[in-house]
Amino acid sequence: MSGRRTDKHGGGVPENSRRRRALVLGSMGVAGVLIHPHAAASFALAPPPPLRPRQTGARGGSPERVIVNGLGIEYEVVGEGEPAVITPGGRFSKDTPGVRELAQALARGGKRVLIWDRPNCGGSDVGFDAESETALNADTLAGLLRALDMAPALVVGGSAGSRVSLHAAVRHPDVVSKLFVLWISGGPIGLASLAVHYCQGSAQAANTGGMEAVAALPEWAEVIRRNPENRARILSQDPARFIETMQRWAAAFFPLPGSPVPGLTVQDFGSLRMPVMVLRSGASDLSHPRRTSEEVHELIPGAVIAEPPWPDNEWLMRQAAAAAGEGLFANWPRLAPQILDFAAGA
Fold it and tell me: Which member of 56, 221, 267, 289 has the greatest number of CB atoms within 10 A?
C-alpha cells in the first residue's frame, strides 16, 4: 500500500464560479471539435405518475419497479445472502452485457445482488432535481437500498458507477458496508469529455429546437422506448431552465482543488470509514487515469489498491469491442473472485 498524500491546496477550497464556468465552456468548445457530442443529459421533470412499489420476489426474475425520491426505478435482485449492488458506467442499463453476469457470479458466492437502472437509464424515470446528476444517482442508490431493506450493502461501481458509489458512501455512509471501485473518471481530458458527452448535445438541442428536439435525440431513444412516459417528462421542461441545468451539471464535472473526483472534497474522502478497495487504472486509459485511482486510494484512510484481472489496455480494448457491438463491461464477471475475497475480509 502506498503512502498517504498530504493535500497541498487547502483541502477543497471552492473555486471561483466564473473561472469554473469558463473552464467548462472552453472545454466544450475544444472537445466539441474532437468528440461527436453524444449529448446524454438529464432534465427537469414534471412529477411522474404514482407507481406501486414492489419488492422483488423471485430472485433474478423479471425486473421490478419502486418509487425512490419521487422517481420510478427499475431493478432486479439476483441470489440470496449478504446484500451487494452493482452500478455500471455511462448511461448504460442493468441489461448491458457483463452486469447481470457479474451479479450471477457474486450470487454463486453467497450474495444477494441488486442491479438497477439509474435515473435517465434503461427503464427508470428521467430525472433532474439535484445539484448534479451524480448526486441524483447517489441519493437514489441510497434510497433504493433502504426501500429494499438491503442496507448496508457491498457497493460495487465502475466508471460513472464508481463516482456514484463514492458519492453514496460520502452522502449516505449508513448504506455502504464496503466499497469496491474501478475505472474512476478523472483528469482534464477525461472530465472535459464528460461535460460534452452528458450535457452539450441536449443543451444545444434545447437551444435550437426546444424540448421536442431534445426528445428526438438518439441518446434518449432507449429511455423513451422502455418507459414511454419519459417523453412527456422531457417535453414538460422549460428549455431555458433546462439549459441552465445542463450548464450547472457540466460545471459539476470539474473537481475542487486537491480532489481527483468531481463533487467531492479532500475532507469527504477522509471521512470514509468503511473498508474500500480501489482497482488501479491502466496507464493507457485517458478516461480513467491511473493517477486518479492512485489519488483516491491515497486520500481514503485504510483503503487498499489492487491490480485488476485484465491487461493494462483493457479500456482501449473494450472501447474497440463496443464499437463492434460488444459491451464495455463484458469482462466484469472476471472481477467476481476479487470482489468476493474483498467482501470476505475483515
Answer: 289
The identity of residue 93, as a single letter, is S
Cβ neighbours of residue 145 closer than 8 Å, sequence gap 6 or more: 83, 85, 114, 151, 152, 153, 175
3-state secondary structure 148-168: CCCCCEEEEEECHHHHHHHHH
CA atoms within 13 A on the CB side of 192: 20
Q: What is the pLDDT of residue 61?
A: 61
Task: Give strand pairing partners of 85.
Answer: 114, 155
Given the C-alpha cell 487504472, which residue does it identify?
A: 281
Superfamily of domain 15-339 in CATH is: Alpha/Beta hydrolase fold, catalytic domain (3.40.50.1820)
Helix (H) or strand (E) run with residue 181 in it: strand 176-182
Contact 141, 151 (CB under 8 A): no
The neighbour count for residue 283, using CB atoms within 10 Å, is 10
CA separation for the pair 215, 221 (Å, rounded): 8
The x, y and z cell numbers of residue 222, run together, are 432507449
Give Cα separations from 30 to 23, 26, 37, 112, 193 (angstroms): 11, 6, 12, 44, 9
Phi, psi of 311 (to 5 degrees): -75, 170
**Residue 272, C-alpha cell as written in the block:** 470514509
Nearest one of 48, 53, 124, 60 to 93, comparing CA atoms = 124
d(CA 67, CA 46): 15
The whole-angstrom distance between residue 324's C-alpha and the CA centroid of its chain comes to 24
Nearest to 282 by CA among 166, 197, 155, 184: 184
β-strands 276-279, 111-116: how paired? unpaired
Domains of the chain: which residue ranges?
15-339
Instruction: Say if residues 69 and 125 touch (Cβ distance below 8 Å).
Output: no
Are 217 and 39 in contact, with CB atoms under 8 Å apart?
A: yes
Residues 79 and 109: beta-carbon distance below 8 Å: no
| Interval 28-80: pLDDT, tens | 333 333 333 333 333 233 333 333 333 333 344 679 999 999 999 999 999 99
pTM of the prediction?
0.84
Vertex 136: Cα angle to 263 and 304 (nearest 5): 50
Pairing of strands 64-68, 71-78: antiparallel
